[in-house]
Design a protein that fits this description.
Helix 28 (733-751) links the parallel strand 24 and strand 25 (754-758). The strands form 5 sheets. A 7-stranded mixed beta sheet has the order 13-23-24-25-21-26-27, with helices on both faces. It is an alpha/beta fold and 896 residues long. Helix 14 (350-360) crosses helix 24 (565-591), helix 19 (452-462) packs across helix 23 (530-563) and helix 29 packs antiparallel against helix 30 (815-829). The protein contains 33 helices and 27 strands.
C-alpha cells in the first residue's frame, strides 16, 4: 500500500484506524486482526492474494474506489506466514488490545483498540512451524568504522532469537564475504550509507536483496549501542561482557536494537555475546565453502552435502551444533583433542552411547521453547517440552555420573546439566497435566489435585448437575422433606422448591435461619440459601475463574523458567554436545573412520583416504566400493605440491576434494575417512574447483577463476592448504598454460603451502625437476582398443595424454564426431603440424554431414564378441559363471 494514502473523510472508523497503522509500517504486509481472521486491505491484499493463492474480495469503498481485501484464519496464520517469509515479505502483526465489549462502552461506533505487536522478518521468526529444527536462524548486523589504523574495521554481530545465541566478530572488508558465508544469516541489517558503498555491497552478492534490511546510520551509533548493551545485560561497564572493538560494539548494539524494534517491547532470553576471533577457527572463503559443498550442494540441496553425510544426530539442537562445528573448524590443537576424546569415549562405551542417544531422541528443543516463552509467544506445550527435557537431562546425568572418570569435555557437559535448579523440574512436574493444549487460554494444562480452588471450579464447570444434586440431597436430609428440589430458571436462577404442605420445615424458626423465601406459588414455595447463591455465582463464573487461575499459574511457571534461563540454556547446549559426540562416534564406527593425529607441524600424511560423501552414495547405489588413495604433502620447513594429471572422469576432482574435507572433519574434532591420518594444523583452506560465471557482477567464467586464484595467491601462507583444479583452462591454451606455470612457481616459492594442483597441461610436469618440493602424480587408467577404463588410483608419475576423446565417446557424442576428432588429434599431434593450422585445414577435408559407416570390430574385439555370443548364461553353474567372468577380465585388463 502506498505510504501517502491518507484516511478519507468518508472512511469508516475501522478503515481510518487501519490506514493510520499501515502508514507506520509501509514496507510490511499488515495482518489486521478482526475477530478470528487477519485481514489485509488495498495493495497488501493484492500482494498477499497473489503470494498465498487466496481469494481477493472487496469491502466498502475508499475515495470512490472498491477496497481490495483478503484474509487468513488466525489459527492457520503460521502456515501463511511461512509462505510469505520464504517469498521475502515482511509482516506486521496487528492485534486487538481490548475486548470488543469494552469498546462498546465508549459508544456503538467505537473501534476496538489495536496495535502492532511484532514484525515478522526472515531473521526474527520463532514459531516452531516456521523454523528448520536442524538449522540456526541468524539475524546479522554489520557496522563499519572508518579508521585507517583499524585493521579490522568491519564489525559483525548475529543473533538467533529462537535460541538466544548471540555472537560478535570483526574482520577486514576483504574477508567480509567469507565471514558472512560462515554464518549463513537469514537476514542482514545495514546502514543506508554503508549499503551505498559498491565495494562493500559486492560482499553481499550472494544475499537475496529481500533479506537485507536498511536502517538509518544513527541505528549503528557506537555510544548508543554501548548504552543499549549495558542496559540489556544489566552491567555498569561494557568490560563486564568482554573486550570488544568499536565496530563490534556498533554491530552488537544494532542487532539488539533491531530485535527490540521487531519484537516491540518484548525481548528474548539472550545469552551474553560471545566473541569469535579469526585465529581460533579455520578460515574458509565463500568460494571454497561452495566448491566443497559443505552445507548444500551446488544446486542448493542439503542431500549430497558433507553435512548430510556426517549428520547422525537425533535432535534439532544437536544438528545445529554439528553444523556450527563443521562450518567453523578449530585452529586450537588442545580443543580439537578434547573433542576427539569425547568421541573416543563413546566408541569405547557403545552401550552407554546408545542409552544416551535414546534419551536424547526424547529431548525437545528447550532453547527455542525458552525463547518463545520469554517473548510471550509460548504455550503450555513449551512448558511440557522444558519439563521433558529436564527429566531426560537428569536421566543422562545419572548415567554419566556412574562412570568413574570422564574425559574433560564430557565432564564439562555433566557439570552444566547438574547445575540445573532441581526445584524447576519438580515444580513443572507437579503442576503440568499429562496432556496439554497448544494455547494457554484454552486451559486444562494444570494437573488435577495441584490447586484445590481450581479443582473445585473445574468440578463446578464440568459437573454442575452432580454438585446441585448433591446439595439437593443434603437439604432434603436436613429438612426431612424428601420431595425437595433444586431448580433453575432465567428469572430466579437456582432456587429450592417444596410443596406448600412441606413448607413448614423451611419457614419455622430453625428454617428461617438458613432458608430465605423467594417466591410463593399456588401449590409450592421457593427458597434460596446463602450457600446456594454462592454456588450459583461460582457456577456462572467457574469457567472464567478456572482460566484465570490457570493463566496465573502459567505466568508463575514462565517466570521461574525465565529466571533459570541461563542454566537451561547451558544444559541444553551440553545435551547438544553429547548428541554430537555420540553421533560422530556412530559415524566413525559405521564407516570405519580413524582418529587423526593433530599437531602444530606442517605434516599431511593420509593413508587410504576416502571421500566422505561419495563412498556413502556408492554404497547406497550398490556400486563397487570407493577406491582409497593416500596423500603425503608434509614438509619440515614448507609444504609439498602434488601436480596431478590424468583424464576427466578419472577421479582428480574427487581426490582433491576428499583431502580438503578430511581437513575440515579433522579440525572440527571428528574422526576421518582414512586408515590413518597425521595433519599439521591448517589455518586457511582454499579451493579453486569447477567452472561458473558470475553474471550479476559482470564476470565471465575465466574472470571468476582468476579472482579466486588471485585470492589464494595473495592470502595463502605456510600453514594453508590449497586445492586447485584446471587453472587457466578458461582462456587460450598458451595463455592458460603460462598462468598455471606462474601460479605453481608462486605457490612453491612464495606461499610454500601444502597444495594439490590438478591439470591437463602435461607440459607442467617438467617443473618437477627445478622445483624440489613438487611431485608428479597421476590417475591410473587402462586403455583397450580405443576404450578407457578408469581405475581411480593415484600413482607416482604423469599422464601422457588426457583421453578426452574417449571420455567424449562415453558421454554419447555421435560416432561421426568422435571419428572426426580422432583424425584432427592425429594431425595436431604430428610435430610438423604443430602451430600451422592453415596446413592442417588444407590437408583435412571439412567434416561431412553424412556419417561414416562404423568400423568393423578389431580382431581382438571380434574375438571377444564371439566369446560372449558363445556363452549360454542359463546353462552355467555359479562356479562356471565366475570362471567366465575372470577370463573376460583377463582379456580386457590384461590381469590374471
Amino acid at each position: 500500500m502506498p505510504v501517502n494514502r491518507a484516511p478519507s473523510a468518508a472512511a469508516t472508523p475501522m478503515m481510518q484506524q487501519y490506514i493510520e497503522i499501515k502508514v507506520l509500517y509501509p514496507d510490511s504486509l499488515l495482518f489486521y486482526r478482526m475477530g478470528d481472521f487477519y485481514e489485509l486491505f488495498f495493495d497488501d491484499a493484492e500482494t498477499a492474494s497473489r503470494a498465498l493463492g487466496i481469494t481477493l474480495t472487496k469491502r466498502g469503498k475508499h475515495d470512490g474506489a472498491d477496497i481490495p481485501m483478503c484474509g487468513v484464519p488466525v489459527h492457520a496464520a503460521d502456515t501463511y506466514l511461512q509462505k510469505l517469509i520464504v517469498l521475502g515479505h515482511r509482516v506486521a502483526v496487528c492485534e486487538q488490545t481490548e475486548d470488543p465489549a469494552e469498546a462498546k462502552k465508549r459508544g456503538s461506533k467505537a473501534v476496538v483498540r489495536r496495535k502492532v505487536v511484532r514484525l515478522v522478518t526472515p531473521g526474527t521468526i520463532t514459531e516452531e512451524k516456521l523454523l528448520d529444527p536442524t538449522s540456526s536462524n541468524f539475524l546479522m548486523a554489520i557496522a563499519k568504522v572508518r579508521r585507517n589504523e583499524d585493521q579490522k574495521p568491519v564489525g559483525l554481530s548475529w543473533i538467533d532469537i529462537s535460541t538466544g545465541a548471540y555472537f560478535v566478530s570483526a574482520c577486514s572488508q576483504q574477508h567480509l564475504a567469507a565471514a558472512i558465508a560462515s554464518v549463513e544469516p537469514r537476514e542482514i541489517v545495514l546502514s543506508e550509507t554503508l549499503y551505498q558503498d559498491e565495494d562493500f555491497r559486492s560482499a553481499l552478492i550472494n544475499m537475496d536483496d529481500r533479506s537485507i534490511t536498511l536502517e538509518a546510520p544513527s541505528f549503528f551509533d557506537s555510544q548508543m549501542a554501548e548504552e543499549r548493551l549495558k542496559a540489556a545485560f544489566q552491567v555498569s561497564m561494557l568490560d563486564g561482557l568482554g573486550a570488544f572493538s568499536i565496530s563490534e560494539v556498533s554491530a552488537a548494539g544494532a542487532v539488539l536494537a533491531y530485535v527490540e524494534k521487531t519484537q516491540i517491547g518484548e525481548r528474548p532470553a539472550l545469552q551474553r555475546p560471545v566473541r569469535k576471533t579469526d585465529d581460533r577457527t579455520l578460515f574458509i572463503d565463500a568460494a571454497t565453502r561452495s566448491n566443497l559443498e559443505l552445507m548444500h550442494t551446488l544446486s542448493g540441496e542439503r542431500k549430497g552435502s558433507l553435512f548430510h553425510a556426517i549428520n547422525k544426530t537425533v535432535s534439532g539442537p544437536g544438528a545445529r551444533l554439528l553444523a556450527e562445528m563443521m562450518t567453523a573448524p578449530l585452529c586450537d590443537v588442545s580443543e580439537i583433542i578434547d573433542r576427539q576424546d569425547g568421541i573416543a569415549f563413546f566408541l569405547e562405551h557403545r552401550s552407554l552411547a546408545q542409552d544416551i542417544h535414546a534419551c536424547l531422541k526424547q529431548v525437545p528443543d528447550m532453547a527455542r521453547s525458552v525463547s518463545r516463552l520469554s517473548l510471550n509467544r509460548g504455550g503450555p506445550r513449551d512448558l511440557t517440552a522444558i519439563n521433558t527435557g529436564l527429566a531426560m537431562a537428569q536421566m543422562i546425568a545419572t548415567r554419566l555420573s556412574d562412570v568413574p572418570q570422564l574425559p574433560k569435555t564430557l565432564q564439562d557437559c555433566l557439570d552444566h546439566i547438574l547445575a540445573l535448579p532441581s526445584q524447576l523440574g519438580l515444580m513443572l512436574d507437579k503442576m503440568l497435566a499429562e496432556e496439554v493444549p497448544v494455547l494457554a487460554r484454552d486451559g486444562g494444562f494444570i494437573r488435577s489435585g495441584y490447586h484445590a480452588e481450581l479443582d473445585e471450579l473445574r468440578a463446578l464447570r464440568d459437573k454442575s448437575r452432580q454438585v446441585i444434586a448433591s446439595m439437593q440431597t443434603k437439604y432434603a436430609q436436613e429438612t426431612g422433606v424428601k420431595s425437595l428440589k433444586i431448580k433453575h430458571n432465567n428469572m430466579l436462577g437456582y432456587f429450592i422448591e417444596v410443596t406448600a404442605q412441606n413448607s413448614d420445615a423451611l419457614t419455622n424458626e430453625a428454617g428461617k435461619a438458613i432458608y430465605i423465601h423467594r417466591q410463593t406459588m399456588a401449590n409450592a414455595m421457593r427458597f434460596t440459601t446463602t450457600e446456594l447463591a454462592d454456588l450459583e455465582s461460582k457456577i456462572a463464573n467457574a469457567a472464567g475463574q478456572a482460566i484465570t487461575i490457570e493463566l496465573s499459574l502459567f505466568e508463575t511457571m514462565v517466570g521461574e523458567i525465565i529466571s533459570s534461563s541461563k542454566f537451561v540454556a547451558s544444559a541444553a547446549n551440553a545435551l547438544s554436545r553429547l548428541d554430537v559426540f555420540c553421533s560422530l562416534a556412530t559415524l566413525a564406527e559405521s564407516w570405519n573412520y580413524c582418529r587423526p593425529k593433530i599437531d602444530d607441524s606442517l605434516a599431511f600424511e593420509i593413508e587410504e583416504a576416502r571421500h566422505a560423501v561419495i563412498e556413502q552414495v556408492l554404497f547406497r547405489d550398490h556400486k563397487p566400493g570407493f577406491v582409497a588413495n593416500s596423500c603425503d604433502l608434509g614438509g619440515e620447513a614448507a609444504g609439498k605440491i602434488w601436480l596431478l594429471t590424468g583424464p576427466n572422469m578419472g577421479g582428480k576432482s574427487t581426490f582433491l576434494r576428499q583431502n580438503a574435507l578430511i581437513i575440515i572433519l579433522a579440525q572440527m574434532g571428528s574422526y576421518v575417512p582414512a586408515k590413518s591420518a597425521h595433519i599439521g594444523l591448517v589455518d586457511r583452506l582454499f579451493s579453486r574447483v569447477g567452472a561458473a560465471d558470475d553474471l550479476a557482477r559482470g564476470r565471465s567464467t575465466f574472470m571468476v577463476e582468476m579472482v579466486e586464484t588471485a585470492t589464494i595467491l595473495n592470502l595463502a601462507g605456510k600453514r594453508s592448504f590449497v586445492i586447485l583444479d584446471e587453472i587457466g583452462r578458461g582462456t587460450a591454451t598458451f595463455d592458460g598454460l603460462s598462468i598455471a606455470w606462474a601460479a605453481i612457481e608462486n605457490l612453491h616459492e612464495v606461499n610454500q603451502c601444502r597444495t594439490l594442483f590438478a591439470t591437463h597441461y602435461h607440459e607442467l610436469t617438467s617443473l618437477a625437476d627445478p622445483l624440489d618440493r613438487l611431485s608428479n602424480v597421476t590417475m591410473k587408467v587402462k586403455e583397450w582398443e580405443g576404450e578407457v577404463v578408469f581405475l581411480h588410483e593415484v600413482l607416482q608419475g604423469s599422464a601422457d595424454r588426457s583421453y578426452g576423446i574417449q571420455v567424449a565417446k562415453l558421454a554419447g557424442l555421435p560416432p561421426a564426431v568422435v571419428a572426426r576428432a580422432r583424425e584432427v588429434l592425429e594431425q595436431l599431434e604430428s610435430t610438423e603440424r604443430t602451430g600451422n593450422p592453415k596446413a592442417l585445414i588444407d590437408d583435412l577435408p571439412l567434416f561431412s554431414v553424412t556419417p561414416k559407416q562404423p568400423e568393423k570390430p578389431a580382431a581382438q574385439e571380434g574375438e571377444l564378441i564371439s566369446s560372449l555370443e558363445a556363452i549360454m548364461p542359463d546353462e552355467l553353474t555359479p562356479r562356471e559363471a565366475l570362471d567366465v567372468l575372470y577370463a573376460l577380465r583377463s582379456k580386457v585388463l590384461g590381469k590374471d
